[in-house]
Amino acid sequence: MGKIDIQALADKLAASSGIAAKQDIGIIAARLGLPGQPIAVGDDCAAIPDGDGYLLFAIEGFINEFVAADPWFAGWCGVMVNISDVAAMGGRPIAVVDAVWANGEAGAAPVLDGMRAAAATFSVPVVGGHTNIRTDRGQLSVAILGRAKKLLTSFDARAGDLLIAAIDHRGRYREPFNNWEAATEAPPARLRDDLEILPEIAEAGLALAAKDISQGGIVGTAIMLAECSSVGIDIDISAIPLPDGVTLDRWLATFPSFGYLLSVSPANADHVIRRFAARGISAAAIGRVVAGSTVTITDDEERAVVRDHAATPLLQLGRQEQAA
Predict the structure, then answer these.
(1) Which of 83, 109, 131, 253 is buried deepest, with most CB atoms within 10 A?
(2) Tens-digit pLDDT profile for residues 74-89
């Protein structure tokens, strides 16, 4: 790999549509009056205290172009990405519900088939939802209920922690999108056991903060984690493991089917990495959590700021804005 132009890469990431789309979250949350409520907003799931643990509640919607171009996989992802959100919080899924719009039964069929396949693979039932198959276009959203004994959150990354990226490289791109697909052909039992790593880490007290790598990729997800926790993050791009044949700039913008960032104390980092490695999942310390508000990428002696969330908030949902 040749010399990387760090500033050009930072500028490209900062302008990416995957990161820009996350700004919509803060706009909508403000309109609804969500910041400052007892249930913190900005996590992968809403965490609702319940007995000796938490109910986890989340929802995902999918862009129309994705549903139209790959409806079966969109249905699969409706289940899978919600399960990933629950795992990112240290939880285990209970059930999902869906809302499907399609032009007739034939239009709905591949979406429903994808959802059914994922529900069977992950042993998470679809228990209801909303259906409209008398519309002119396909749309999809899926919600999930889960439970956690101990939480991993977006609000508990601390300066001095290491940033660990754990991503399943055993996959391929589902062209033409930047979706790294490592699940549809994998053994179901393996996928279910892999998801147990996150709640086991939470329950063992090995980490307090984690986030599912989403459409914003590694760097966009790091920006959201940094802003929610009111910290900075320095990412060493030379430390990021790459799948064979994948370029760094595309990998940084990739939405993996199994991918998480964890903020972990140096004393626990090796233990956390070994837990993922034991399951064949690539895990590495790719940076540090630092005091401040900038998310940067570094390579050797070069450093470039992708975003300063104090100067230009992305979510506008930082820790200081949450109710105690």
Answers:
(1) 83
(2) 999 999 999 999 999 9
